[in-house]
Amino acid sequence: MSILPASKSPDTGATAALKLADALTAGGLDIWNPAWVGTDYLKITNAPGALSELTISDAGLVTWEFRPFHGSPVDTREIARRAPALLGASPAEISSDPTPRPSRVALKDDIAQRLRACGLDVSVHALNVDASGPYCEITATNPAMPTRGRIQLAEDGMIRWECRVQENDRAQGAKLADIALTISAAVAAGI
Fold first, then answer.
1. Distance (Å, whole) CA 70 – CA 85
2. Could you report the per-residue pLDDT of 47-58, keeping only the tens digit for each?
């Protein structure tokens, strides 16, 4: 299948994006447009039950974001079980657990501990507090494979993987073919 650029007037789209961004900003929302910072944007259109998007910056940073929308509670332990593969780690130490979900904080601590058992460096960040407790994200890196970047996991099942593209054989970063294979495998597994 050939990938062709969408046919549109750049002036109309850019003008509409700026006006919409201004209106949304006036409404108290923070807006980011990848085109403003020299970033390319890709959307995986056939990721079953999920939104799956990539941004690639001019500086060579690839960010892949995967957000499931199943309509039922996301099994964050299952997400955590599959996520280490993005960093080149073995998820063998993480098993699915059918026990009832613990509280938000306990769940994050449980997932963080399981990721650490895979040899990952892990930190937990509380981002917001509501009636259900703090909303947290987990960030993990693989010290054995720093070129694989980092992952962020959120309780809604979101996974964000960031890594740098290897520009030449002597540069640090992941090869584009490896990034593509990793993302393809993760989407196929329904991460």
1. 22
2. 888 888 998 888
